[in-house]
Amino acid sequence: MKKHALLIALGMSLVLLFMGDAARFYRLGFVQFIDAKLYDYRLLLTLPKKADDRIVILDIDEKSLKEEGRWPWGRNKMAVMMDELFDHYGVAVVGFDVVFAEKDNSSGLNVLQDLGRSQFKGVAQFQSVLAQIKPHLEYDKLFAEKIKNRNVVLGYYFSNSERGHDKSRSGVLPEPVFPAGTFKGRPISFMQWDSYGANLPELQSSAALAGHFNPVVDFDGVVRRIPMIVEYDGAYYESLSLAVVRAALGMPKLLPGYAAGKDKNYGGLEWLTLQSAQGDLRIPVDAEVSALVPYRGARGTFRYISATDVLHERIPKADLQNRIVLVGTSAPGLMDMRSTPVGEVYPGVEVHANMISGMLDQDLKQNPPYVLGANVLMLLLVGVILALLLPLLSPVYGTLLSAGLLAFEVLVNGYLWEYGNIALPLAGGLIMVFALFALNMTYGYFTTERTKRQITSLFGQYVPSEVVDEMSKNPEQVSMEGESREMTILFTDVRGFTTISEGLEPRELSQLMNEFLTPLSRVVYSHRGTIDKYMGDCIMAFWGAPLPDVRHAYHAVLAGLEMQRKLLDLQPSFRERGWPEIRIGVGINTGRVSVGNMGSEVRVAYTVMGDAVNLASRLEGITKQYGAGVVVGEVTKEATPEFVFRELDLVRVKGKDKPVAIFEPLGLSGEVEPAVLEEIRLFQQMLRLYRKQEWDKAELQLFNLSRLSPQTKLYEVYSERVAYYRNNPPGENWDGVFVFKTK
């Protein structure tokens, strides 16, 4: 680490740079731009590209203007439209993406009233006729009566006055959805406005609801969000899309949703809840109380119906019945067009249609305030890993690590997008990974690589050459210092070696040992093991050091089984030489041990020590008691589910107070014959009977097992025990443990 301090410091500086941008302490323009484009790309990749039949756009298009006259139409015509929509077609809700801010004087009533006050003043007949026709010429009042007691949602807009100009206000705002003071004491960043353009008072008082149709225009001019709640003069007002959904659901109560257990500087408003009879709807909001627009497709995804066709009843009733109708304009000169991720020219009314559809379907991407913190933590995690590890890795592994973390970021981001509906920023993380990778590769190119072969002379005698090569490429992973690790230890010993050695000449005995120790040692090497030492006819080996090995138990058990097979292959050549048959017992145990250079000032050796080592030796010693080639401890068995094991016993070995379960591995799962699996099952049943002291049943089961496999010593051992315990009952408190008095 000290040798790479400068490079690590430079890397951490880059990490802090991108974390500062993610935390919004400042903004890096290129990151913001790329992040917006990546959001658009993800959105385009996952578009459903199909309409929502519940929503129809009533379009004041060129055809309508040609037949009905220029816009704005008289309010009398809008009144007729209301009757057609609600009485004839039976729509559910009508939302207006237009504002009725000015009085409609197109009826000529003002002119007639002026005449009545001047030229026809005192003319009774004129005044009488004027009084009769006046209600039919008050178009605003007529329109107001037609929307009253109907599910009509009016639209309006907010704006901010230019500096030095008076604040502009027209019409009247609806009642706020949350009164002033609702969010007092909570630092929530509502979008604030000081001006508005709203509807005439008589229209607003007759409408069911009203909502603003202001979108959020991002830095690049693209509409990706709609503010669900905005602040004006201390009170809080809802969007047009939210108001339409509320109207469609029967005016449910709107409640703010707070995240609990947050910092006092965190406002905590993360969602809005609509409590309706059909079930609560949740609308996730970001730090500005805005919601991401869940675009369904390109322009025209929703159905457009010409307004004039509705006025003249040219549309089948079924096309509009129980639908949500949004009234907007697409005629040249009237279009409210927006730039969106799905199109540079996109009708504003269709933006609201997408928002309404997403709220009803509860299919909204979330960008809640806590995403900022999540993004910072993600950058910290990935950045620290790269800043600390890249200087220590070779170019190949550095590239793999960087590619892996890139893939990790993309996969996590994609998973959260698709299954969590969370729009986590992506650009900062990707650019940071590329920047750290480029920094380290450039730094490595202009600096001298340190020597990596110093390990070879130290470990060549312990481990296979290919492992030494790995260690020399990554010497920082290797330490001669003593440390505690979980490892697997293996002991082998030749059964009856004393008798064998007495029958052979010294030279012949030496040849015999070389003939079987060499292939057994190669087996250890082939499975990435480390040979600790040879003790006469015994081999001690371990897995998990000097290089870490997460599958150390698996490799050790595989080596133990292969040792038995290798000896079988050697027997024919031994017989040809007149040598005795060699059989070994293998004991394997897994546990935490101390590993490193140990010894004295005179001599040191790289070895392992600990209780797990002692138990491995004891297990090797008792293999002959059960006639098993390989015996493993319970920890090893649990760590290697790839193998099929037969439980042998529950024993207390010499030097251990606590009993341990011991097992015999019979092969890899899928490679053990069905007959053997059935024999294991029957023996397990026998063990249960034995431990419950049901001696007769256990004896019967052993008799059947002996018939299946007469050469299995294990069944003889238990048959003798059953006979003994039948005559010498162990007592009610017997735990089934067999105690070994010798090693």
Structural class: alpha/beta
By DSSP, the count of extended strands is 28
Q: Which overall shape is indicated by the principal axes computed on the Cα atoms? A: elongated
Mean pLDDT: 86
Please state the oligomeric state of the protein chains shown: single chain
Query: Helix fraction?
Result: 40-55%
Low-confidence stretches: 448-458
Measured on Cα atoms, how large is the radius of gyration?
A: 42 Å
Major beta-sheet overview? 9 strands, mixed
**End-to-end CA span:** 46 Å
Count, helices: 25
Q: How much strand content do the residues show?
A: 15-25%
Walk me through this protein's architecture.
The chain is of the alpha/beta class and 743 residues long. It contains 25 helices and 28 strands. The strands form 6 sheets. Strands 20, 21, 22, 23, 24, 25, 26, 27 and 28 form a 9-stranded mixed beta sheet that branches. Strands 1, 2, 3, 4, 6, 7, 16 and 17 form an 8-stranded mixed beta sheet that branches. Strands 5-10-11 form a 3-stranded mixed beta sheet. A hairpin with a 2-residue loop joins strand 18 and strand 19 (343-347). Helix 1 (5-22) packs antiparallel against helix 12, helix 9 crosses helix 11 (348-361) and helix 24 (695-708) runs antiparallel to helix 25 (713-727). Residues 448-458 have low confidence and may be disordered.
